[in-house]
Design brief:
The protein has about 280 residues and is mainly alpha-helical. The protein has 11 helices and 4 strands; from the N terminus they run E-E-H-H-E-H-H-H-E-H-H-H-H-H-H. The strands form 2 sheets. A two-stranded antiparallel ribbon has the order 1-2. It has a two-stranded parallel sheet with strand order 3-4. The longest helix is centred in the middle third of the chain and has 37 residues.
Amino acid sequence: MAVSQTPRAAGGAPGGQMPLVEHLRELRGRLVKAVLAILAGAIIAAIFYGPILEFMTQPYYRMRPVLEARGIETELVITGVGGAFQFALKICLVVGLLFSSPIWLWQLWAFVLPAMHRHEKKWALVLAATGAPLFVGGAALAYTVMPKAMEILIGFVPDGFGSLVTGAEYFDFIIKMLLVFGVAAEIPLVVVMLNRLGIVSAKQLAGARPWIIVAIFVFSAIATPTTDPLTMLFLAGPMTVLYLISELIAKVTDWRRGKAEARGLSDDEASSIGDVESLD
């Protein structure tokens, strides 16, 4: 039987190694736990389906009076015999996935972590600790601007027409907005990690700044589910600010790296960004 060279803290072969079969068994066990956690999260979401639905539809009902004042009638509806069930099931599964994310992410983390070297563990922890708040912040911004975005989009309804928004369309719109804004908020983390790995320098980032800002606006125009410039600016503006912050962090990192090389230290020994040593 082939033996994996991945180190394991316990339960492996002598020398910290684990047979391939044991790896597969551990992976199966962690996948089962992750799936059960997601199902449990979906059940909890079903129990609190009413408040969750109210939270999701709040942006729509906040902008609805504005359109009605302009003479545009709009209604949120569910179509089809099984449409209500499919709509509820989709919401519960997605919300359950979010509710259980600490558990299934931990299962993934616990499987991968023993295979990492010391410095890889430190930066993986930094990545996880900063990535989640950035994503949540981006999603919160999306939730804030959604009423205005829907007001602009539905506002194109011509005189004499009404607007029926199906539940499935509305849910897809919300998910796309949250994902786009959440992923876009990860820009500084990606830039800092690329700089930390030595792939790009602060000088290169500064030289490419005009092109990157243009790319940010192009991405915002393409990625946002809406076609209005206001929503694009709501996304591009914070992304630009975050990129400038990440460029500043890269400058500090390069300065520290230069001082470390002058003293003959390795990059990992010199770096204390975020006090990563305290994570071990």
